[in-house]
Amino acid sequence: MLDLIMFIMKYAAAFFMGALAAVMSAQAAGYRVETVASGLEHPWSLAFLPDGRMLVTERPGRLRLIEPGPDGRPQLRNEPVAGVPAVLARGQAGLFDVALHPDHAVNGQVLLSFAHGSPEANHLRVVRARFDGHQLLDVQPVFTTQPAKAETQHFGGRMAWLPDGSLLLGMGDGNLDRTDAQRLHTHLGKILRIKADGSVPDDNPFLARPDARPEIYTFGHRNPQGLVVVNGVPFAHEHGARGGDELNLLQPGANYGWPVTTGGIDYTYARITPYRSLPGMEPPLVEWTPSIAPAGLAWYDGALFPAWRGSLFVAALVERSVRRVPLSGRSPGSQEVLFQELGERIRDVRAGPEGAIYLLTDSPNGRVLRVTPASP
Q: 238-265: per-residue pLDDT in tens?
């Protein structure tokens, strides 16, 4: 019995010292991290409502609401938001991004991206709906990728609005026939651009080609899970295989190389291609080898952290961190690795309207975290 008590005391002391070290590390770095909500099953995306509440997606197919509790502090509403369409939740498939319509203050609309169909024949689908504070109403499909693909990998799923009100959507290569990323008759391995109602903008780069899907904006992508628009310029990152993660500046009609050019190798350690670059294929702004597994992407220009202004923030699953990538114009500077003291896979990163940084941790008991400056 004494040995058991000593073991428990030793474990508790180690846990306490680890937690204290993490807090001290964060404070030394000039920030503090607090839990906004917990008990989320693989949270994937976060959106800020105009009234200060937050919407959070859970990959199994639930949309959750964080709202002020009786004490004024944010808390997770027990009941999920009603009205979410049926979601294919298996493997990497599930409910992905949530984005407010540009005119949300007027029309109350939100957009969701998710895996739709069956494991044998599935698509990435976008729907729009009106959120009344409790449920989704008037749910309408906006766009469904084509053709159907098998298995439940590499969906992409991130969305971002361009200044003209058109929507960018990342779609992965499906991970079965990776060369589909180079074929224009399929949406696989592409960044797509549509209008808010799902129609095609009349200046999309491949609109005049009968052999191409008109929604294609860029191609040659593996699994893009980060999208953000900075002063009208879109940036995206994507998972490589074993290495070759990329951060790219998106240019309409451009080819980003996958799988013809890459800095990574296959999971079997076989070479995917002998080429790291080729004429006519855009090189990445940043490449990460070994892989950090980039997941979410945010632009920070807030007031709470002046030293971080003008930076991209990259959530990393494998590295269990967030990479800060400062930009000078369109050129990346020296990176900073943040929040590793948390020891958690980071699925998404967002810049809050008040200037705080928000993180989503990827686990069956995931959390929404808020990062603010440390107290003096």
A: 999 999 999 999 999 999 999 999 999 9
Structure-token match 């451009």, residue found = 254
315-365 tens-digit pLDDT: 999 999 999 999 999 999 999 999 999 999 999 999 999 999 999 999 999
Burial class (CB in 10 A: 0-12, 13-18, 19+), 265: middle
Render the burial of 120-136: b for 16+ CB within 10 Å, e for the rest: eebbbbbbbbbbeeebb
CATH topology of domain 296-376: Thrombin, subunit H (2.40.10)
Cα(1)–Cα(7) distance, rounded to whole angstroms?
Answer: 10
CA distances from residue 295 to 26, 126, 146, 250, 320 in whole angstroms, order as listed = 22, 19, 24, 17, 11
Q: Where are the domains of the chain?
A: 42-152, 175-186+203-291, 296-376
Token pair 């409790």: residue? 134
- 43 touches 348 (CB < 8 A): yes
Cα–Cα distance for residue pair 131/138, rounded to 1 Å: 9
Task: Exactly one of 154, 187, 221, 237 is catalytic; name it.
Answer: 154
For the segment 8-50, what is each residue's pLDDT rounded down to a tens digit?
A: 344 444 434 344 444 445 556 799 999 999 999 999 999 999 9
Q: For this structure, is 123 an active site residue? A: no
> What is the longest distance spanned by two Cα atoms in the chain?
79
